[in-house]
Amino acid sequence: METNLREEDYQGPFNSEVAENREVSSGEELSVAGNPMFRKVIRWLVYAAAFLVPLWFLPFSADVSEFNKQTLLFAAAGMGLVLYLVEIIKSGIVRYRPSKFYLLVFGLAAACAVSVIFSVNRTISLFGVAESRSVSLLSLLSLAVLFFLAMNVIEDRGRALKRILTVSLALAFIFGMLQIFGMFIFKGAFASRAFYTVGSLNALGILAAISLAFFSSYGSRGGNEEGDRSIFRHLNIFGYIGFVLALFLVILINWWPVWAVAFVSLLASTAFASAGDLGSFKAKRMRLFAIPMTIIVLGIFLMLVNFNWTSLKSKLPVEVAPSQKTSWKIALDSLKSKPLGHGAENFGVAYDKFKPASVANTIFYQVRFTDSVSEAANMVTEGGALAILAFLALLWFYGKELAEKVKNGFDGNAETGVVWAASIGLLAAFFLYPFGVTSMTVLFVLLILGLIPSLDLEQRERVINLENDAKYSFLGSLAFIIGLVSVMVAGYFTINNYIANTYIAKAQKAVDRNVAIEYYVESANNNPNDARTYRLLSQTVVAQLADDLKSGPKKDESRENYNARVQNEVASAVNIAIRATNVDPSDSRNWTNRGLIYENLLTLVGGADQAAVSTYNEALVRNPADPNTYLRIGNVYLAVADNIQRAISARQANLDFNAARRQIDDNLIKAGESYERAISIYNNFGQALYNLAVVYDRQNKIPDAIKQFEKLRAANPRDPSIAFQIGLLYYRNNQKDNAFTAWQQAVILFPNYSNARWYLSLVYEERGDLANALKQVEEIEKFNPDNEIVKQRLAQLHSGQRIIPPGKVLDQEPLNQ
């Protein structure tokens, strides 16, 4: 009996060369598609991220803007990735649109991952810190995942995504304009001209600059396009509104980097419009050129005349950053020191270590910059050689793709041309300004919008059937496990970090220090790797300790319990400060904070002076051009000398007075050396000059003390207290006329200065001029009507008695009022 065999009756492979990795056309999509609902949800997650990131902020966390944007990005990317992987497992099929940019985008994230390994602070490189989050590994991976998902789920050539980004940017500009004009929607800290949803005012200006090109297509359409039949066609009005507001912002800010970005974008859009046949655009080419050229001419004119809307701009915050020269010097020195970078978001550490000493002689001597002048300099400093190579590769393939687009006339799609023009402007901004999460997100969205149309035109995607080969099944299962576990782990830490951040916000708002301490402890428990929390907590504990020492035991509290409580606060402050340096030993601020804690405990803990000096020296290793640290070291030595002097004056038992005086001399010498080091870095460091004068005074080097005060007086000619102090020194140095003049100047600068008038009165009396002496005391009486000493002196002068013999003026104590 014969049996006719058919292919469908056979369950095994007919041929060992069955195709497992193949392309399908759009006609075959339905046969291989997974759950279309998953793709729709993923698509809306991409849309939500693109729309919300430029606008997103929340008041619950200490870092209200960048941290919340990063969390939003991760949430969208994480959920989208899980849905994509679930679809793969459920259908047994991997569907993706091939693009070489996947490798480039994830290559940037991989370079960041390597920098994390060699980072000076891995936690910061992983998650970022404070308002520095844009290039942390979590942010870059989230953006890379969203890029991949968007490239594979968007079906309408990106028209909906473009309109969503348009609306988001337009709303950000509207909110920014309201903030600029003081029309605040929100209360509290958000009711400020310094707050903008995209970051700073200049960041808003950069986005406005690229938007001039990005929005230009809305004023240049001819006819109805296929995408205009969607629900998004009603959003086109935001393109017109956004263009007008963007132009206003660029003109108002009138900053050359903003204009440079605008020029690059507009010139690129003009060039692309003329590059090929863009349908209806071709007939209106000269009209299209008119607006960009007009804006460029206007921008050049406004920069040349230095246009400044003073009445409005005077109310706006001034943003400062290191110069281009300083930023690139730090970047190159950092690259030599750590070829693989300091780690993402660790520019501040590199700045401390490599900043020029000349910075100390500027108004920024106490400023610690967490970003350089541009994102490019940040990348070199933080990412090192690998980040440079990854970025150059991205630029190379970006350029090749753009050249091909121009050659093909953007396939007749004018909107694609303006998208690429905007992306070129944002890449130019990469070399002119540091990026926040919003700018980085917009860059990725523009890249998606530039690439999506050509992928759709091909109407083909790659399909891998995981069920036809055990190898693919294993790899698919492994990818699902790795992806899901990665999202869960990152989500766990992100949630904990967010909870910790909210506790910091609560602590900073707390009025009661004990409540603040509880919140800081909760924050540290949820995120034990944030040194900032330990710094704030240790400072709060020390402040509470000072209050307790001042107020003494509580009602019904025994002395023993009080002493135990004080000792516990002392130990806690020290241990918490040590914890900060253990968590992040690379940050000079942690060592400075620890030294300050020791300094505050000089009279309570034996050996605190040595610990403070040692810790401050550790800070100097990490921040060698910091004059403040040398000042603090000098303060420790000066405080020790004063404490020993008080012990001598109190005639403490079992005290070797000769040894104690030698210790005083030794500490005064070291204090003077430290102050001199501080002054050598910062020539007009007023506090160091003052304290050095105090040291010379203690050493009875009055002429040297006078020299320091004369420097202070030259730098602060309108400070009455300096005039008063130098008057005392002049008198002690027998320069009585100079002392008299200095005190007169102090009174002129501050007529209510009772102490200056008091000594003027004494000098007049010393000179025998009782009438003028009486006038000074009568002026003092106006401000001190109930002071018995003043009343006694008035009575004495009214009686005509002279009791101050020559040379005895300084024997009289000042009023201290």
TrEMBL record:
Sequence ranges of the TPR repeats: 686-719, 720-753, 754-787
Domain of life: Bacteria
SUPFAM superfamilies: TPR-like (SSF48452)
InterPro entries: CellSynth/LPSAsmb/PSIAsmb, TPR-like_helical_dom_sf, TPR_rpt
Keywords, sorted A to Z: Membrane, Repeat, TPR repeat, Transmembrane, Transmembrane helix
Listed transmembrane segments: 41-59, 71-89, 101-120, 135-154, 166-188, 194-215, 235-253, 288-309, 376-398, 419-452, 472-495
Matches recorded under PANTHER family: LIPOPOLYSACCHARIDE ASSEMBLY PROTEIN B, TPR REPEAT-CONTAINING PROTEIN PA4667
Listed name of the protein: Uncharacterized protein
